Amino acid sequence: MLLNKGANYNKCDNQGLSPVLIACAHGDKDILRLLIEKGADYTKCNKIGQSTVMVACLNYHTEIVRMLLDKGADCNECDSYHQSLVMNASRDGNKEIVKMLLDRYANFNKCDILGKSPVMMACIHGHTDILKMLLDKGADYNRCDTFDESPVIMACIHGNTEIVRMLLDKGVKCNRVDKYGQSLVMNACIHGHTDIVSMLLNRGADFTKFDRNGRSLVMACIYGYTEMERMLDKEVAYDNTYDKCGNPYRSLVMTACQQGHVEIVKMLIHKGVNYNRFDYHGQSPLMMSCEHGKTEIVKILLDNGADYDKCNKVGHTPLSVACRHGHTEIVRLLLNKGACYDICDNNRKSTVMMSRRHGPTEIIRKLFFGKRAKVLENLLDTSTDKCDDGCQSPVLIACRYGHTEIVQMLLDKGADYSIYDNDSWSPLMIACKHGHTEIVRMLLEKGAYYDRRYNDDLSLEKIALDNGHANIAKMVLDMF
User: Fold this and answer.
1) How far apart are CA 70 and CA 74, in angstroms?
2) d(CA 45, CA 121)
3) Torsion over CA: 266, 270, 276, 282 (sign)
4) What pLDDT does residue 149 have?
5) Where does each ANK repeat begin and end (predicted)?
6) How many CB atoms lie within 10 A of CB 238?
7) With b meaning 16 or more CB within 10 Å and e meaning fewer, what string describes 220-235?
8) pLDDT for position 312
9) DSSP 8-state symbol, 295
10) How far apart are CA 447 and CA 452, in angstroms?
11) Nearest 5 degrees, angle CA 18-CA 19-CA 23?
12) In 3-state terms, what secondary structure has residue 413?
């Protein structure tokens, strides 16, 4: 009716969509046929360069694609991203449209603006039948994209086992590497595709290669693919493959420790790796495990004789690292092994000071009641008044972070609560500033408040009020 009244059938909306494009998108063959018979432009594109036939292709409307091609639509046209009909159909797995286009001699090697070809799209998305069609037509299966990734590399990354097999059967080299120097087997290993790794190893893939960052195939197991490590375990005799470090000089066992892969750590130790090797920062596998709370791995390393007193570049020990991060059970393991508890780091922070700064009260409190009580008593006796480079005492640090129980422990041990830091702040002033009411009360009851004013004529009540702690200001005034 509208067409008979002379309606404009080529007019587009604000998004650049014409009636023909809308009919193609919705798969309405009868309306499309009627519009074309009236003379509608079926070659018109939308705002991103997609024509009617491409819109039909993207929406899986096979019959409309056929109708438009029969009308003379270009089977090689591309959108603004240089994506062709063959590429879109290969990516989306539309076998019938791919066959239709290939039968009409569409260009099957044309790449988009990222250099990806129809073959690569089929490899990425696992469309085996479409890849076979393209290969039977003579498509280039070695062409790389602008990122220098090849179709077979992408198939390994995405775990498309049958496609990898097809490409290898076509003659693709099994030791091909990408721009990072990573081989097919390394890419498959990194992404956990065991079947592809097995296939490549059976075809003679070189498992001794290192990538450009110095990482080996075995290092791919840092992602926790234990089954793959077992597979490689049968292939690789112990050599420097297991001990070679990538950047920043971090070995396989260290990274496995960091990520908590217990079985891989066990296998590597069984292989004879050097588990006392340190990275560029002086971090050992044991220290890495202590930092990340990997208790079971810490126990394995200690049972195998790992050095538990070695310091990193800033003077931290495995024990101080465990204290800092609040890993109570690891602290217990290290103390039971005889770890030294009175070593200070390069900033003169002791092990107990680390605990007080980060608040794991359980580490101190629980161990007081265990068989290491004497050790902890000695530790507190030697550390209660030790200051760091900023002249911050353990009491001051605990006051700053509001660790009430630790402050109480230190006061019970006779810690000096009148030591000022380099900025002339006392523990009491710090507690007032940060609003730790209970700590302020404890210090005042201990007699910490001697003078009405401290540095720069700042009174305790002014410090409290300036930081919004009126209740503390009132407490101070009521006490005096």
Assistant:
1) 10
2) 24
3) negative
4) 93
5) 15-47, 48-80, 114-146, 147-179, 180-212, 248-280, 281-313, 314-346, 390-422, 423-455
6) 12
7) bbbbebeebbebbeee
8) 78
9) H
10) 13
11) 120
12) coil
φ, ψ (nearest 5 deg) of residue 175: -105, 15
Q: Take residue 304 and report the two structure tokens written for it.
A: 């195998």
Contacts of 326 (CB under 8 A, 6+ apart): 355, 358, 359, 360, 362, 363
Instruction: Give the number of other Cβ atoms within 10 Å of residue 237's Cβ.
Output: 8
Return the number of other C-beta atoms located less than 10 Å from residue 390's C-beta. 13
SS (H, E, C) 207-260: CCCECCCCCECHHHHHHCCHHHHHHHHHHCCCCCCCCCCECCCECHHHHHHHHC
- What are the helix and strand counts (H, E) for the chain? 28, 0
DSSP-derived 3-state class of residue 268: helix
Structure tokens at 332: 């217990």
**H helices present in 402-479, as ranges:** 404-412, 427-434, 437-446, 460-466, 470-479
Axis crossing angle, helix 19-26 with helix 29-37, rounded to the nearest 10: 150
CA 30 to chain CA centroid, Å, is: 52
Contact 322, 301 (CB under 8 A): no
What's the rounded Cα separation, in Å, for the pair 152 and 277?
36
* pTM summary value: 0.59
Q: What is the CA radius of gyration of the chain?
A: 35
Whether residue 250 contacts residue 272, with contact meaning beta carbons closer than 8 Å, is answered with no
> Phi and psi (nearest 5°) for 246?
-95, -160
Q: Cα(152)–Cα(119) distance, rounded to whole angstroms?
A: 10
Q: What angle do CA 313, 318, 323 make, to 5 degrees?
A: 115
- Name the token pair of 385: 């008044």
d(CA 162, CA 196): 9
The full DSSP string for 126-148 is: T-HHHHHHHHHTT--SS---TT-
Give the closest residue to 342 by CA, choosing from 397, 306, 386: 386
Whole-number Cα distances in Å, 293 to 223, 225, 250, 274, 283? 18, 21, 19, 21, 15
Structural domains of the chain, ranges and CATH numbers in brackets: 246-376 (1.25.40.20), 391-479 (1.25.40.20)
> Within 10 Å of residue 297's Cβ, how many Cβ atoms?
28
Other Cβ atoms closer than 10 A to 451: 7
Contacting residues for 463 by C-beta, under 8 A, at least 6 apart:
429, 432, 433
Q: Give 47: exposed, middle or buried? Use CB within 10 Å, 0-12, 13-18, 19+.
A: exposed
User: What is the CB neighbour count within 10 angstroms for residue 80?
Assistant: 12
Binned average pLDDT, 10 residues per bin, the chain of 480 residues = 47 66 83 77 80 90 92 91 95 96 96 96 97 97 93 96 96 89 87 88 82 67 56 51 51 80 82 80 87 94 90 82 84 86 60 49 50 45 54 82 82 83 87 92 82 60 90 84
